[in-house]
């Protein structure tokens, strides 16, 4: 068991949730999503995001529109769909539960250790 | 200097040099390969990725005339991640999602484990693969090494061929799932689709290359015959197909040749190593294994071990290069030898070659000049005396002889010293010009010049005894072992005045060399007979009758025919 593997697995599990959360705050194009995730250290390499975005789009959780750009070709802006909003709500509920649960488990452990 | 290519990447225009272009193309191809089989999603992802890469590149390339180089692409790959990372991202959702992906069947793969390594992490990688403890693999390799020397080679091959597990997914794949029937089946299916992927990629590359070639050709054609500019599509399609087929065949033949080269060169290198080891240890342990070195090994200023080493390198280095060539044919992982390495190797090879050439010339010259040394011995024999001539061998030195003059040279040990033993001894009897009886012992040898040759001749050891009227000659001479390839010889000539008799003992039979006598009796028939020196030559005193009888039988035989 390698610590890097476990860390990567943990991060990956919530990546979907993070992407949807970013889009909740407003439409974004890929580079914006990437820079947000990277600054939060949610991803190490950018490549991982693309299959994920396509998958979410295919599942109907997001969609995109093309927007003209001042510099270069049009950009793809991702938009959260209605479905996506509901999905996100579910996910944040689960996330909060998860955080609580983990907190409960880890803090209990530390008290017994003491 | 590099050719540049103009590309349109995600709507941006780039000058990119050829190497960088190839790298980028391969990168995108391998991403596309590592993604799921759903073609629409795949194309979309690739388009997005291309757009992102173009964005990153245009941040780097500020001047429109600047060319994208390999380093830029490396940076991009660093930012975007390895192809495995893309697959990794997909993998997570494979169970809940709609499409089946072959990457979800994370079969085990053989990698080197860089985290748990002794040398290259080969053993631990193999251990992960078979799900056993690393120590057993290491012990096995050690046993193979000491058993047959094969372990080293196996290890090196695996080291070169196996990639090191670097990314997370590779490490996961390395540790993988336990081996069971289900997984084995998956694995086989996976390998099969891998192979078919590879074949199609190869075919695509080939067709592109041929197309490029065809385009270039047609461009040139259209330049020369500036009328026609339209390309013949049918022809290029046909060329594509032919190209694919030819390339596939060459690929297969190439791999086969690669395997053959590896096997042959490995066998030669192994046998050289084993041979070298055993030769060296035999020499070192002073075992008399009847080793036969090439002739020029013996009388050289360069020691035998150095010559052995040189011949070893002379043969070994080319085969080592062949071995690496074979590996490179089989696997693209294997890098070219670095310049210093190849320079060193060729340097060593040339030095060995020069040394061998030098000893070859040395050998040639050390035999070029004949030399001799003679010794005169007076014999206390007067008129009417009879001289007895005998030849004896020392069986303690060498017993497998048949008392016969011949030019064979044998290796013997005298007082623990390696010597050459030979029966190349010839005896002649001639008329003395004076009243004196005497014997001349002529030793012949070879050397690089007159002085050296006669020095060598003097060093040849030959013994005889004189007891009363009997001369007892040795049937052999001894010489130092380094002269085993030199033509050395002992010539004994006995000079007798008139009216002195000589008796040839039976032992002299095969050593007499053209002794002139009245009646031309053959050397062989002169043994056991008495001869007397006349005015000119020897004359038999007691063999006339026998010889006549012999002649009679001969004539009788003739009549019967």
Task: Tell me about this structure.
The complex is a heterodimer of chains A (114) and B (561). Chain A is of the alpha+beta class and 114 residues long. Chain A is globular. Chain A is built from four helices and three strands. Chain A has a single domain (3-113), classed as Arc Repressor Mutant, subunit A, CATH 1.10.10.10. Chain B folds into three domains: 1-102, no CATH class; 256-366; 372-560, no CATH class. Helix content of chain B is 51%, strand content 17%. Chain B is elongated. Chain B has a six-stranded mixed beta sheet with strand order 10-11-5-14-15-16, with no helix packed on it. A four-stranded mixed beta sheet of chain B has the order 4-9-13-8. Chain B is of the alpha/beta class. In chain B, a hairpin with a 4-residue loop joins strand 15 (530-533) and strand 16. Chain B contains 15 helices and 16 strands. Chain A: InterPro entries: Metal_resp_DNA-bind_regulator, Tscrpt_reg_PadR_N, WH-like_DNA-bd_sf, WH_DNA-bd_sf. Chain A: It holds the Pfam family PadR. Chain A: This is PadR family transcriptional regulator.
């Amino acid at each position: 068991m390698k610590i890097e593997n476990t860390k990567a697995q943990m991060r990956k599990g919530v990546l979907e949730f993070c992407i949807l959360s970013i889009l909740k705050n407003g439409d974004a194009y890929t580079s914006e999503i990437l820079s947000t995730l990277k600054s939060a250290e949610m991803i190490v390499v950018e490549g991982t995001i693309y299959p994920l975005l396509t998958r979410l789009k295919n599942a109907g959780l997001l969609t995109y529109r093309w927007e003209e750009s001042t510099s270069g070709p049009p950009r793809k802006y991702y938009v959260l769909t209605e479905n996506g909003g509901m999905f996100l709500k579910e996910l944040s509920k689960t996330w909060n539960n998860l955080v609580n649960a983990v907190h409960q488990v880890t803090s209990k452990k530390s008290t017994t250790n003491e | 200097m590099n050719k540049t290519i103009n590309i349109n990447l995600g709507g941006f225009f780039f000058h990119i040099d050829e190497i960088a272009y190839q790298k980028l193309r391969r990168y995108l191809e391998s991403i596309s390969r590592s993604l799921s089989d759903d073609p629409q999603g795949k194309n979309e992802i690739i388009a997005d990725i291309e757009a992102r890469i173009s964005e990153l590149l245009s941040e780097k390339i500020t001047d429109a005339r600047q060319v994208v180089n390999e380093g830029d692409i490396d940076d991009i790959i660093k930012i975007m991640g390895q192809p495995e990372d893309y697959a990794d991202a997909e993998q997570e959702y494979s169970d809940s999602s709609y499409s089946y992906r072959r990457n979800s069947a994370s079969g085990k793969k053989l990698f080197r484990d860089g985290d748990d390594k002794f040398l290259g992490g080969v053993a631990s990688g193999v251990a992960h693969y078979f799900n056993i403890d690393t120590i057993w693999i290491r012990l096995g390799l050690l046993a193979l090494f000491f058993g047959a020397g094969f372990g080293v080679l196996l290890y090196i091959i695996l080291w070169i061929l196996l990639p090191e597990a670097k990314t997370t997914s590779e490490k996961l794949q390395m540790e993988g799932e336990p081996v069971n029937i289900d997984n084995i089946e998956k694995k086989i299916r996976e390998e099969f689709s891998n192979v078919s992927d590879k074949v199609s990629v190869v075919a695509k590359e080939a067709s592109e290359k041929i197309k490029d070639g065809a385009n270039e050709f047609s461009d040139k054609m259209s330049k020369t015959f500036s009328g026609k500019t339209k390309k013949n599509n049918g022809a290029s399609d046909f060329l594509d197909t032919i190209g694919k087929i030819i390339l596939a065949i060459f690929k297969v033949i190439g791999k086969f040749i690669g395997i053959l080269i590896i096997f042959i060169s490995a066998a030669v290198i192994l046998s050289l190593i084993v041979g070298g080891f055993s030769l060296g240890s035999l020499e070192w342990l002073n075992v008399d294994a009847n080793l036969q070195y090439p002739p020029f090994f013996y009388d050289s200023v360069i020691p035998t071990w150095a010559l052995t080493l040189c011949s070893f390198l002379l043969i070994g280095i080319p085969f080592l290069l062949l071995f690496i060539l074979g590996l490179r044919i089989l696997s693209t992982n294997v890098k070219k030898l670095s310049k210093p390495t190849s320079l060193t190797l060729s340097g060593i090879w040339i030095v060995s070659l020069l040394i061998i050439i030098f000893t070859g010339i040395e050998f040639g010259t050390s035999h070029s000049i004949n030399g001799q040394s003679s010794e005169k011995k007076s014999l206390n024999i007067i008129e009417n005396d009879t001289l007895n001539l005998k030849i004896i061998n020392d069986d303690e030195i060498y017993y497998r002889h048949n008392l016969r003059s011949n030019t064979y040279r044998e290796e013997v040990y005298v007082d623990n010293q390696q010597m050459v033993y030979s029966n190349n001894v010839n005896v002649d009897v001639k008329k003395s010009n004076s009243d004196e009886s005497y014997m001349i012992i002529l030793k012949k040898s070879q050397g690089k010049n007159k002085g050296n040759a006669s020095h060598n001749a003097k060093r040849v050891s030959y013994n005889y005894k004189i007891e009363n009227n009997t001369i007892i000659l040795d049937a052999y001479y001894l010489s130092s072992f380094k002269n085993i390839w030199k033509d050395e010889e002992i010539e004994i000539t006995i000079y007798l005045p008139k009216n002195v008799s000589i008796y040839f003992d039976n032992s002299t039979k095969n050593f007499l060399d053209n002794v002139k006598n009245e009646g031309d009796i053959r050397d062989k028939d002169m043994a056991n007979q008495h001869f007397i020196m006349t005015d000119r030559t020897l004359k038999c005193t007691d063999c006339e009758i026998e010889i006549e009888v012999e002649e009679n039988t001969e004539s009788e035989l003739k009549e019967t025919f």
